[in-house]
Amino acid sequence: MPAENILIIFIRNPELGKVKTRLAKTVGDKKALEIYQDLLKHTNLITSSCSADKAIFYSHFIDDYDSWSNVVYQKFVQEGGSDLGARMENGIELVLKRGYENVVLIGSDCLELTAQGIEEAFYALNKHDVVVGPAKDGGYYLLGMKKTHHEFFKNKKWSTEDVFLDTLLDIENLGLSYLLLDTLSDVDCEDDLKQVEA
After folding, report:
1. What is the reported pTM?
2. How many distinct structural domains can be found in the chain?
């Protein structure tokens, strides 16, 4: 029987020229890969001690020999092609069908996210239907729920400044209770990196 809570972590396989493409336009592919590897290390560090079960969803293939422990992290591949919404929806559906009651999904782009923030998200699901961590770029760095709300993943222009507000509208239209976490910065371009380092 699985634990009550599960944390889903969406990552990209760290390959040269295939990660942080917006950032790479100004710093180059090699530097962008180094920065992404730092983001992965940070995400690994803050999630490894999280009290929930944990699952890594890779962009392309499962790597059993990387720094993500095969004992600590369940490992899957994102399913849904190029549609981020479909990939998130499928990941959440998969773990809920395995018997988990609360699911929190994060990416690997937020250096400001902490283990405490993740625990706060799970705690919020004791009292609310949904929890969202807004990102300063208009998206979100964290999304938590108890059931799959398919509306969240449809008709969204992913990686744009409207995603968070559109999701908030979905939440309100469905009459769901929700909690917003602190607004944090995702690292997608060089300006984001400067803000985090400041």
Report:
1. 0.93
2. 1
